[in-house]
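Supplementary Methods S3. Input chains for the assembly prediction are listed below.
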Amino acid sequence: MAEPKNGVSADDVRKIARLSRLHVEDEQCGSIAEDLNGILAWIEQLDEVDCEDVVPMTSAVAMDAPMRQDTVTSGNIRDRILANAPKTEDGFFVVPRSVE
Amino acid sequence: MTFIAPRVADEKDWLQGETGPWELIIGLEVHAQVASIAKLFSGAPTAFGAEPNTQVALVDAGLPGMLPVVNKYCVEQAVRTGLGLNAQINKFSRFDRKNYFYVDLPQGYQISQFEHPVVGEGEIEIVPEGGEPVTVGIERLHLEQDAGKSIHDLSPDETYVDLNRSGVALMEIVSKPDMRSAAEASAYVDALRQIVRALGTCDGDMEKGNLRADVNVSVRKPGGELGTRCEIKNVNSLRFIRQAIGYEARRHIEILEAGGEIDQETRLYDTVKGETRTMRSKEDAHDYRYFPDPDLLPLELSDDFIDRIKADLPELPAARKARFVEQFRLPDYDAGVLTSDKATGDYFEIVAQKRDPKSASNWMMGELFGRLNADEIGIEDSPVSADALGGLIDRIADKTISGKIAKDVFSKMFEGEGTADEIIERDGLKQVTDMGAIEAMVDEVIAANRDQAEKAKDNPKLVGFFVGQVMKKSQGKANPQAVNELLRSKLGL
Amino acid sequence: MTDLTKLTLASALDGMKAREFSSMELTDAHIGACEAASGLNAFITPTFDLARDQAKASDERRVSGTIGKLEGAPLGMKDLFCTEGVRTTAASKILGDFTPPYESTVSANMKADGMVMLGKLNLDQFAMGSANETSCFGPVINPWRNGEDLVPGGSSGGSAAAVAADLCLGATATDTGGSIRQPAGFTGTVGIKPTYGRCSRYGIVAFASSLDQAGPIAKTVEDAAILLESMAGYDPKDSTSINEPVPDWRGAVGQSVKGLRVGVPREYTMDGIPKEIDAVWAEGVEWMREAGAEIVDVSLPHTKYALPVYYVVAPAEASSNLARYDGMRYGLRVEGENLADTYERTRTEGFGDEVRRRVMIGTYVLSAGYYDAYYLRAQKVRTKIADDFRQAWESCDVLLTPTAPSAAFPVGRKINDPIQMYLNDVFTVTANLAGLPGISVPAALDGNGLPLGLQIIGRALDESTVFKAAGALEKAAGFDAKPDKWWS
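Predicted structure tokens for the full assembly:
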């Protein structure tokens, strides 16, 4: 394999958690890393399989994409769009400030 | 993007620094909104300016279990645009998810095309202002969804989100780093704009953000090793593109000449201050984790699908310009102006039909554009139609009125007072072509100005004075050519 | 009057047709059973009032002569199907208070066919689990007991338990790696995952989009066929929906299997699998042979790689599918100091341990530098697994395998050992990866008196043959055991 598989470090856990927008306490990182490494080591038995020239399978159905017509079939359902929102104002979703 | 930049800029485009000349390397990613009625993956409308969150389908809000289905029209427009860019159409393409979190990205990912775009490499020719034609390579064109809109000024400590734009179809057109000056970059975007407008695939409205550019700028010693580039996001006018590039290039040169290094980063152009500033810091580097969207299947386009679009392709601005030069014998400049957008070209072709093309061109580029610009009216909404302008030119050609009178008539036509014929008739502007009547007036004028007539023999320029007098007498209606000829013979010139 | 909850769906539909009882009577009987069975924790959100309204409306329709395929039948809905106006939680805290303003296509089809919905059934959180222990509404208890509380399997544990305990005549379920078939096996019920694309995924809370497929859990093979005929069908709102008509599957049940080639994949004999499982499997092979089928030895060489592939592909897709749960537009929001903090608090509190674990694995295998090594490689091995089946179909028409590597196990036994838990899906996950139909049929009780299931896997879109084979297996097995009604 061209990719180095040095295992997941506590730092990797922090990075993955950040990408996933999940919070992990520093003291948890080690045990999570261990947990993930156990699973990844088990996954790495896939390295035994000869995958030369194999086309990756991205879907379980062998069809092309069906396409819709360019017509308006939705919209004007703001009440439904906002119905479950934690906070709204004047028809907008209200969220924590996303710029400084 | 494969970053190879063999062409070296013209010396006139080099930027002088303390340490010598520098060369600009520019590549652009242009986002053009597909002129579709519905969104890329939903049946919500795309019209501009609706109340917040009223043009949102369930899938556009990323609600659980909602699924995308691709809009065929958008795929067709991408292919159409690709053909207009003389580009490779990829029969197999696929949608991928670009994963990142943002408050106006409801699904937590943007559906885009990463590994297999619908359109591959192509090229277009551009003519920068005051420069020679340059060929700019197209790297790719792919379809992707737009995000929603975050509004930060409705509350001091919260952000308001409107998802009306969420899911609107965009074509991202990625150029090769083939531009070497701000003028070239601006000409490139202008050319793209003309192409998509001619094709009807995007309305090209930069003010509404329907066509906007991410500008990649770096500098190098002419012909030397490439520098680190910065990306200036979302610049939405040709002028701002030029200004942003100018600022950014200077910034790079100053940093490099001071011995510093350029950070590869994303920047924003502040149109008020006229400068660029950092948008995202490096530590927040993204890892987009692209992978094929399992909710969508690959697009497999048949030859028939592509051929049908090809057959329906309109003439593009570059081809039309060449044809105007060839067919109408117009100067390059005129042809360029008249083919800069489809409506103008169409207008011209109506006016020029069975008329002198150069007169048609002069009238459009002079009086018509002058009035339209002054009143900020598009040619589509011109109060003087192409046929009406043609009617006016006909009256000049058949000598019913003089060119000078025609300008007054045009002005009245523009004010909605009627057709050329109606105004000429109403105001009695018909040119006097009765030679007897003209001769009588000429005689009267000469008789009243004996001294001057004598002097004219030595000073032929004085004939202008007599022409003026006769025209005045005829209230401008005498045929100036006939007046001139008669005067010259009677004065013995 | 006989206990209406003991009826099969088919006989209940017949009984209503013959006016032996009304939908209201049938529904009331089941509501009574549900109310008495709260100890099983099969429901997250009962909808008994709605059920009574629907039963009343159904009885009225019957008078006017409009009779749908599921007319008046009280059924359960896995709480992964969005139901308009009825809370849909995916057994998660993050969607704990989410009420969809829309209906999933599958539940809409069933409504249109006259279903009476008793409520939303418990499951593993976001369908991630094999024991129904990851639900934030507490575990579901298997109606079958062995001196202690057992898991019903997962993720469709609520569906399986509710059907096994006669709380409903059938239930919807979903299957991403075995989530219909394994719980059916653990509870002595029938569960079919149809061909990928048969049932629309529109309105089903997504776990792993390229693997998720809806199907029913039922009391009999015939009932499963009736339910699937209602659930399935082309849906233009799902790009992966297959545009094929729904055949008469009910009619396929009971057809002869004479001459049917039944493949027995040798790789499904694995180390560490209890002998009893192999014994039941061998018995199943004999039953099929006696019913006139031809038994064929086949090889699916990449079987052992199916689970590792699954645990790359499914978490990868899930990590992206679950990104939308960010507290901005719906669902739980836990306010933090700033946006980043709000995101993290919301998602950390809103997702359970197993969901967070899978989101992190998925994020990792897609991240820069690891994509090729994990995700792309898994997709390639997935191709090889699908190729194995294509090869096998040259020599057989269906495959016969065990459903799960064990019978139901005690609550809490495996929850802290992810790989042990993942091994539950070892026989079922291959059909998800290849997109094939698979059904679990109860075959026998093990030495502890717990049900064991056998699985039939068929060609893509060939559910008819699967139902035919499953019907023959069911008939030969003659499985009629029911759990003791200890819960009420």
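Chain B has 15 helices and 17 strands. The first strand of chain B starts at residue 15 and ends at 17.
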